[in-house]
Specification:
alpha+beta, membrane, hydrolase activity, M23ase_b-sheet_dom, transmembrane helix
Length: 196
Amino acid sequence: MQADGNHEQPKPTFISRAIGVLIKAAVLLMLLFIVDKLLPSISQQTQSFVMAKWQQLSLLQQPLPTENSLPNPLPKQHLTDTWGAARSQGRSHEGIDIFAERGTPIQATTQGIVSKVGENTLGGRVVVVIGPGGAGHYYAHLEDYADLSPNDWVNAGDTIGYVGDSGNAKGTPPHVHYGIYINGSAVNPYPLLQKE
């Protein structure tokens, strides 16, 4: 014992030092294992995010659809301009209805990024694709969806869903409600679609 009253700490033994090193090594190995397992998924998520943002920027640089530039989402089905027709609760129709047999595949009219696959009150089962110029392409009253998720890329002609009568169309003849939104406002899709 020293005269100033301080106690000398006992020196760690070889065994206690070895146990300390082994514990630190085990913790380090666990951390490396966790990072090794997570890194590929983090990297994949980062790549997917960057790719989606690049595609969105690329789409925004492309021109908006013009007259007769888009294919019919239901090829060989007759198109009628139902834009502006009266609807319940004083609304007017913000799209066109294209009738076909229940379950008929609905094709994307443009390339783009899927922004929604889900349901809403009026449209029932809906798919929204953001296409060139940032235009939103809205497909509603679907019977079912194709194998799609938000942020998926689609090309014109890809199946995005199937004709039905979901939402407020329940009990009406099966059809797809097709709408286009530019800068958040609905525009008449009829003039933009190619007529056969």
